[in-house]
Fold:
Amino acid sequence: MKIFISFLLVLCSFVANGQKVAISAHRMNVIYVGIPNYMTIVAEKYPCETISVSTDNGKIEKQDRCTYIYYPENIGNGTIEVYNKKKN
Structure:
């Protein structure tokens, strides 16, 4: 019984550690179709130069070090994926 409880505690602590990513719009709290939507995208423990960003709704262009411009194509949900270039 003691082995099961200690294994459960290790599993919970492992699941709680995750990568943190922040995506923040500059001027508005909503993304609009038809206009450039400026945003900052950062990932914990990775410099902005080593991350890559993609979306399934429109396109994202890198403007500056951590600044991106998002051009959505359709109204509705979209997914923004953040990758580390060095780890593929």
